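Raw record, unedited: Related to ECM4 - involved in cell wall biogenesis and architecture
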Amino acid sequence: MSDDNAHKDGFSKWSNKDGHFRRQESSFRSSIEKDGKHQPEVGRYHLVVALACPWAHRALIVRKLKGIDQVPDLLPVHVVDSLLGDEGWSFVPYDEPKGLGVPGTGNHIPGHEDKKRIRELYKVADPEYSQRCTVPVIWDAKLNTIVNNESSEVIRNLNYAFDELIPQEFRGKTFYPEASRSEIDAFHEWVYPNINNGVYKCGFATTQEAYESNVGPLFDSLDRVEKMLADGRTYLYADTLTEADIRLYTTIVRFDPVYFTHFKCNLRTIRDGYPHINKWMQNLYWNNPAFKDTTDFDSIKAHYFQSHININPNRIVPQGPLPHILPLN
Ligand SMILES: N[C@@H](CCC(=O)N[C@@H](CS)C(=O)NCC(=O)O)C(=O)O
């Protein structure tokens, strides 16, 4: 375990001695590919997510956009409980499938019905593993191991991993188009640290200095995205949906319901302060089921407000903002 993650469990221990939150490096970095260790196959792979988690949410969106959800047993989803406790994420029965292909009773990976927590699965994959046990996870049931637990790589892999097994219309479809790669990569360079992870750096800061040094760059970066979208474009790049949209969406859709209050990201809301970002988000949510069907506001709110007891000791989940996302007009 690196110094950055010296504290194993408990959200009160998420920050370093200097009060700054630092996210750990993901450990499992393989991919599903033909002729590789993890070959594409029906009935072999599983996706473990928390509906609240913005990183796991990326994978759920791409799974649906690629039509992977349309092939039974190609990549079934296992949803963990919304509460992240001291022991990490737990597997619990989840009775509302929400169009995710989630089994109605129980959520365990076949063969691992005895596992109560995600950390037990990580131990199967690597008995020496001692870092935080995060979602998303792509699980290989044949080799009994984790293929990948880094969302940015999972979503790239899903672009092509199952292309021979999914319906024809989805084959070859990519959210990382060759012609826009340098622009998309450059976008991630400032959006990941300042926005995607930036909200966490504000929320998990344990000193005034740490908070203040992150809240400015967060809103400066939102201002920058707002300017990009001011020409009325539907998508960030190339007139088409790319991973830049997907990765930004999962943070923005959580912003007003959670980050604004819970993480103290409260200089402006998206709905009142960023009309172009708001419109871009509304369009994705209301016009594309891959976004709407995978966005579970109840789970999102329950997770953040109830799990981080150092931030919200009484675990009260606020009712608003209502509606959680404004209708398109
Ligand atoms: N870099 C990872 C980050 C994933 C991550 O941090 N997930 C959080 C949930 S939002 C998690 O599972 N945390 C569990 C824990 O810290 O115990 C990715 O993008 O996949």
